[in-house]
Design goal:
The protein is an all-alpha fold. Helices cover 87% and strands 0% of the residues.
């Protein structure tokens, strides 16, 4: 039995599913911040939101591709689980890091937009 193929297939399914789920949550909930940042300009907010989504996918799919190869041996199911745990764990950490980076960027942009709005009033 080729445990490499099983490991790769499971890894890709889990990683892609997690990436899509996190991207959808960020896309849906990030729009509210962007509309506020861009003072109600829905077209600009939606455009920036889509660009952020594309960047999110590119970074995560790029990392998934780089992390796919396993250099060690996978002789049995126990090692399959261990390799998957390590690989999926890294994906989760990266997704979490990108989530917090997005929040930080949104927060800073929103703070700046609110300050500019106060100055203009």
């Amino acid at each position: 039995m080729n445990y490499f193929i099983i490991t790769y297939a499971i890894y890709l399914v889990i990683s892609i599913a997690l990436t899509i789920w996190v991207a959808r949550v960020l896309f849906k909930n990030g729009r509210i911040f962007l509309v506020d940042i861009f003072h109600g300009n829905n077209l600009l907010a939606d455009s920036v939101n889509r660009l952020l989504l594309v960047g999110f996918y590119l970074v995560n799919i790029g990392y998934m591709s780089l992390a796919l190869k396993e250099a060690g041996t996978i002789p049995d199911i126990q090692v399959v689980v261990e390799v998957l745990s390590r690989k999926v764990g890294w994906i989760i950490l990266i997704l979490g890091g990108m989530h917090f980076l997005n929040l930080l960027i949104f927060f800073k942009l929103r703070t700046r937009a609110q300050q500019q709005k106060q100055v203009n009033q």
